[in-house]
Design brief:
single chain, 395 residues, alpha/beta, Aspartate Aminotransferase, domain 1, Aspartate Aminotransferase, domain 2, 2 domains, four-stranded antiparallel beta sheet, 13 strands, globular
Amino acid sequence: MKYDFESVISRKNTGSEKWNSMYKKYKNIPDDIVPLSVADMEFKNPPEIGEALGEYFKNSVMGYTEPQDSYYNAVISWFKRRHNWNIEKEWILDYPGVVPALYHIVNCFTEKDEGVIIFTPVYYPFYSAIKSGGRNIVECPLVENNGEYKINFEDFENKAKDSKNTLCIICNPHNPVGRVWTVEELKKIGDICIKNNIKIVSDEIHNDIIMPGYNHTVFASISEEFQKNSIICTAPSKIFNTAGLMTSNIIISDYETRKKLYKYRMNNGVFGCNMAGYKACEVAYNKCEEWLSQFINVIDRNRIFVENFIRENIPEIKVSRLEGTYLMWLDCRQLGMDYIKLEKFMIEKALLFNDEGYIFGEGGKGFERINIACPLSVLSQAMERLKKALDSIKK
């Protein structure tokens, strides 16, 4: 079956967060402008999910609902098939989103004034999850060289040696720079953390959106020691565009770690997810693998289009090679604008509503993150608007 990745769908007046944000920034925006911010897609959902939910609700009582064995089995089977990782039902702790889980994990496994190490620039909720509970953000800036990002392991090891730093959150694939960390890189991270008694939290929410030629490795699958010392955060939400259903799978093999987080979750009034989220996760993992394969090909096509267009028309912008996620990272520092002027230019001149690089930390100033999970026609029009706006400045 060939799925539809070309229809342009207006989400105006539907409650879409990203669309509402666009209209707040620019009230008179033309109706044909599609925002390229926020990590949800401008594609139709896999039809199997909508059809299954329709049948499910038609024949269900919408009362309090717990996850069933069919849900757990779908998650277990997915990670075995896609990631060669054998997990058990008891390891899966359902959460209404990875971000709420991150807030709980930070507060549950660290004390006030302790440090949490993150590799920056990075997904902005990491910062708020750490700060909200009075913990210290310990930045380990990634090293950028001509658009390629690497971990500064010397810096990381020095910060890991500080006994006040007790937790490390990694993002794999990395959001926003698009790196898929290699097994060797993950081993170095894991060894340093174990040596210094630091627990690892691995946000792997984009773990199935990997470009051809790259391979994702679940951190916990590398060794028993890594598995015992880690919390793996996953969800079908980014992969199948179901973020609004608020369902994620936090996978913890260590019993004491899992018990402690479960107790913290319950004590803070979080008792699980909603019935639609459980069913959608089950259907996505059981019936939507072909949709995902086609989706990845579309994202890779869109990636190539953006790379070629910018290289041929706007060489001042450098594009980091996208290895994973559907979020491209553009270095706009050579355009000669500071990050405040850059944002103003993107919105008012180019009519582009991206995620500004500065929200990902100091290392993101002068960058733009664009969401390429959209029809090619939308992306083409966005690039043409960018070129036209820059040409007008040059003239």
